[in-house]
Amino acid sequence: MSIYLNKDSKIIVQGITGGMGAKHTALMLDAGSNIVGGVNARKAGTTVTHTKAGAEVELPVYGTVAEAMAETGADVSVVFVPPAFTKDACVEAIDAGIGLLVVITEGVPVQDTAEVWSYLQGKQTRMIGPNCPGIITPEESLAGITPHTIAGKGPIGLVSKSGTLTYQMMYELSDYGFSTAIGIGGDPIVGTTHIDALEAFENDPETKAIVMIGEIGGDAEERAAAYIKEHVTKPVVGYVAGFTAPEGKTMGHAGAIVSGSSGTAEAKKEALEAAGVKVGKTPSETAELMREILKAL
Length: 297
Known about the structure:
- Helix content is 34%, strand content 25%.
- It contains 9 helices and 14 strands.
- The chain has helices spanning 19-30, 65-72, 83-96, 110-120, 163-172, 194-203, 220-231, 265-274, 283-296; strands at residues 10-14, 34-39, 47-52, 55-62, 76-79, 100-103, 126-128, 134-137, 141-144, 153-160, 178-183, 209-215, 236-241, 278-280.
- The strands form 2 sheets. It has a 7-stranded mixed beta sheet, sandwiched between helices. The protein has a 7-stranded mixed beta sheet with strand order 9-8-11-10-12-13-14, with helices on both faces.
- The longest helix is centred in the first third of the chain and has 14 residues, at 83-96.
- The chain starts with 9 loop residues before the first strand and ends with a helix.
């Protein structure tokens, strides 16, 4: 089992002919992903050639997401288009009824993301991102840019605001492995939240324990803590990036700004611990807390 993505997922790439789209299409194929085509209105009717498992594959390029879905049965789209065109690409995929929309692009204007988020309400599409590494179900499928060789399949579910911390945590716990690892993105508005992922992991029988990585700024981690207290029965360990960040200063991700005591790493740690979550001060300490839990299960 997994959440949102598995070996049967049929993936298309919006922006498959661009530099980043081409590079990461090749890497997703290496990870075993079932990529069935791509979208670029200007290059509709052409094909792109990649290799998968040592054999050449010709991937068709379609003019629209709707056409790609009709021809291939695709249910996942990964977006590699420039920030200025990301909103239109998302709306097109949502209108076509794609099941999962993974938006890798960083630098998307928050206003655009807010409009896409609003447009999503009541629709059947789940969006992950923007500004995220996407989602990986190890040894089955990758929709995004997470290096697939870090860790194999296992009992841990991982949800993280940070891409690089997703990779580090997967590496730290590669001896156990993951059911699914999902990077939700660090922007102020994202399509899938910690709470969404926690709910999915709670309902996934193969996920035995959950790692949640947050960062300073906003109140997403505090809200997740309240959700965990009420609804999550599986053990959760947490890490909050930014314990040494100076107050009032924006750090890295656009969402990471501290105001007063709310939004600080310490405040988030206290909220999580009050909900029964063990919180590490470093990624390595967090991984060790998870190991102790898994040994006891």
